[in-house]
Amino acid sequence: MRPVIPYVTAALLFGLGVYGVLRRRNAVLVLMAIELMLNAVNLILVTADTTAKALLPHGGQVFALFVIVLAAAEVGVGLAIVLQLYRMRASIAVDEVPLTERRADEPVPAVAGAIGETTVTAVAGPPEGER
Amino acid sequence: MTGVDALLLALGAVAVGAGVLVVATRHLVRAGLYLVVCLVALAGMYLVLTAELVTWVQVLIYVGAVVVLLLFAVMLTRAPIGASDDLDRPGWPAALIGGGVGLGLAALLVDAYRWTRVELPRAGTAERIGEQVFGAWVLPFELLSVLLLAALVGAVVLSRPDIGQRPATDTSKGARGPLR
């Protein structure tokens, strides 16, 4: 077995994932690109398990299993955030997310209060996304 | 070039090709389906690399759960059926950074491993991996269960806007009271 083949495959997949994260606007597609990157790392780990002689056998495969579990947790929380974003703004374009805090004098349908409170109220208000 | 190498090369080509389509297609749903192709090809590579248990876990969790979850998200965000034109940002920097990372890592690994060959070790069956997980790695394993629980609770809290709203004012409660 030539280990360079899976290693180069993993490197190219990781580059594709980086490209996808930077290029895509849709948050779900960004998550898909992140899955590509995580899988590239898994492939590196599994291949290293065959090439490196470690003290404990199969360490790379155990780590790959752990990374798969982490990816499952990540995608669960990530999709919850994406759906919440869609409910708030009716759009999941990542370059339209406001990164600055909302000012108090801005006309939003909310009670005057803390930022967290206004956010929650805006979420629970009349759903603009369901038109 | 043995049969194992040819198999790895073919599966790697399928995985990279499907990966290109995932980040380049204009159809949201098709991106998810190309992701399935890519993940299955990677599972085949794991199988050739003697990681049996990882293969089946990959098929079960990634193809079975993660992709289905992603497709659910595509559906719940009312994605258009046909091709969409607004999926991409104009991306010279993205192509530069992504290509640089991918080709740079590839050059590094090619330089490190050249055309050497290694013997495949014993297969990572469920028995052997289980010995390791519940022997040497049992503490990280238990930590992961705590992390999964935290992610579960976090996802539930995030997707229910009425949880954080309880101590809020009476106005919204009065308006939406009969709905609860």
UniProtKB/TrEMBL annotation, chain A:
The keyword Translocase is annotated on this UniProt entry: yes
Hydrolase is among the record's keywords: no
Cellular component GO terms, alphabetical: NADH dehydrogenase complex; plasma membrane
Transmembrane feature ranges: 6-22, 29-48, 60-83
Compartments (UniProt record): Cell membrane; Membrane
Recorded catalytic activity of this chain's protein: a quinone + NADH + 5 H(+)(in) = a quinol + NAD(+) + 4 H(+)(out)
Main subcellular location: membrane
Gene Ontology terms for molecular function: NADH dehydrogenase (quinone) (non-electrogenic) activity; quinone binding
Enzyme Commission no: 7.1.1.-
Membrane topology recorded in Swiss-Prot or TrEMBL: Multi-pass membrane protein
Record Pfam families: Oxidored_q2 (PF00420)
Enzyme class name: translocase
A GO biological-process term: ATP synthesis coupled electron transport
Keyword vocabulary terms for this entry: Cell membrane, Membrane, NAD, Quinone, Translocase, Transmembrane, Transmembrane helix, Transport
NCBIfam families membership: PRK05715.1-2
HAMAP family the UniProt entry points to: NDH1_NuoK
Described purpose of this protein according to its UniProt entry: NDH-1 shuttles electrons from NADH, via FMN and iron-sulfur (Fe-S) centers, to quinones in the respiratory chain. The immediate electron acceptor for the enzyme in this species is believed to be a menaquinone. Couples the redox reaction to proton translocation (for every two electrons transferred, four hydrogen ions are translocated across the cytoplasmic membrane), and thus conserves the redox energy in a proton gradient.
Subunit structure: NDH-1 is composed of 14 different subunits. Subunits NuoA, H, J, K, L, M, N constitute the membrane sector of the complex.
Family according to the record: Belongs to the complex I subunit 4L family.
Protein's recorded name: NADH-quinone oxidoreductase subunit K
Source species: Micromonospora sonchi
Name of encoding gene: nuoK1
UniProtKB/TrEMBL annotation, chain B:
Entry keyword Cell membrane: yes
Compartments, as annotated in UniProt: Cell membrane
Similarity field: Belongs to the complex I subunit 6 family.
Organism: Micromonospora sonchi
InterPro entries found in the cross-reference section: NADH_UbQ/plastoQ_OxRdtase_su6 (IPR001457), Nuo/plastoQ_OxRdtase_6_NuoJ (IPR042106)
Assigned keywords, A-Z: Cell membrane, Membrane, NAD, Quinone, Transmembrane, Transmembrane helix
Catalytic activity: a quinone + NADH + 5 H(+)(in) = a quinol + NAD(+) + 4 H(+)(out)
EC number: 7.1.1.-
PANTHER family in the cross-refs: NADH-UBIQUINONE OXIDOREDUCTASE CHAIN 6
Cellular component terms per the entry's GO annotation: plasma membrane
Protein name: NADH-quinone oxidoreductase subunit J
Enzyme class: translocase
